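Q: Is it fine to ask for two folds in a single conversation?
A: Yes, each is treated on its own. Send the first.
Q: Here.
A: Result:
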Amino acid sequence: MNKELATCDFCGVADSDKNPVISGDKANICKICAKSAYDIICEHEDDNEKIEKFPTTHTIVSKNVSLKPKELKSILDEYVIGQNRAKKVLSVAVYNHYKRVFNNNNTDDTELSKSNVLLIGPTGSGKTLLAQTIAKYLDVPLAIADATSLTEAGYVGDDVENVVTRLIQAADGDIKKAERGIIFIDEIDKIARMSENRSITRDVSGEGVQQALLKIIEGSIVNVPPKGGRKHPGGDAVQLDTTNVLFICGGAFDGLTDIIGKKNGGNCLGFNQEKKTKKEQEAILEMVEADDLVKYGLIPELIGRLHMITTLSEIDEEAMIHILTEPKNALIKQYKKLFIMDNVNLDFDPDSLKEIAQKAIKRKTGARGLRSILEDIMLDVMYELPEYSNKTVTITQDVIKKTAKPKIA
């Protein structure tokens, strides 16, 4: 009669030569779970907040919250208005990535590749906010870099490897924590190499930077100065493995719709061509393929490492109003909280919100322009705020137009 195999009480795996189960008086634990527990203790992580490393049944957990794609998207819904397709793509990519990172119980030779993401959309559409929200919720370090500031080694500017230094700094110097973080590279379209249709070529911050990014995006051991700056021969260096770092790249890609439209026969010469509406342009952009990005100027090797591509739409007036009022960190909620601290109530009438949204749309900076508009409008009120204790301040459309002062009652 065969003796029944012991099973791990944490992950349920059966005892095996590769992953033996240690039996105690009242509990069993396998080698992988024991090592994960040891790593957590060594890193002094708070069990109430950090991501647990136990290889459960293909589910990553952070204190009783299952990080499944639907639940990740619901978190993004609380902070980002609209952009449902992009939120779905990012949720699936993040879930698959961290499932790959924390699932060490591999029983075959199949290797899972990273699910790096490319976000294509106009400025102010929420690309950076999506990355920030995901990183904050997962409690992993996030480094944000502007691709336009990156240069090849030897040129004036930031080395590509300095992005990794920022990730280490975001992790407070904890290398292991940084190695499972997220790097967001914005304005990736600005380093596109110039194609034969364009007038010049550039290499200082163009194709050369793309080549330099390949190594760290795919996964490699990077030697970086511990405090940033340029590397010096013989100087101190810190090693970080980027194999498990998730890369999210974003860019506006102005003119990409023309490339896609031309491929699909949508660009015809003539004087009577009707200008496409925003919805039509967004529909064209959703058809983007790797070949279109190559024609735009991204090298094929880089595109091959950005496995999931999604587009974000331009924010319209209705969505802009929702952004002002609905998310957890909505600007109107922030101002109301500031006023409450001085025992003052703050109200915005509906027409004032519309006027703010229209101003932001005219500036063509997306939701990013909302804060500067409100800061300008609210400056005088905030200056005299302590004098309005126990009163209500009402912002009208005329206040936004700067033709009247707020109502104080």
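Q: Second one now.
A: Result:
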Amino acid sequence: MSDEEDDANQEDMAADWAAAMSEQEDIDSVLAEQGADAGGSDASPAQFDELTAPPHVAAEGAPDLDVILDIPVNISMEVGNTEISIRNLLQLNQGSVIELDRLAGEPLDVLVNGTLIAHGEVVVVNEKFGIRMTDVISPSERIKKLR
């Protein structure tokens, strides 16, 4: 992926976040007006005008991603899968072989919280298994899959 495409994707994401924040501000103002009309709010409208952007939004209106960078996620690698009946599942024992839907040598799927983010191959690092990413899905494609 070129730097121009990355810049365009970043700009698209920033525009999406700005639109979402604008919608939230509209909702907040409507709720504030309803609260003032109903007499349920002690705050004057001037106080709402003085509010600043939430701390997770940068000055330009783009989201501050530092807020989410320390959130843990589950990452897993999928060799393949198959569907079997409960009868066959109960008959499995040591030495049983389950045929998967992948060919030998095909790349593994790398999943984060169940969402495909990349393909990779198994490697050994310091006598432990690892995975080398061979094809990483672009951030914009990942976001489309979440919707």
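Q: Anything structural to flag on that second result?
A: Two points. The chain has a mean pLDDT of 77. Helices lie at 3-38, 45-49, 86-90, 139-146.
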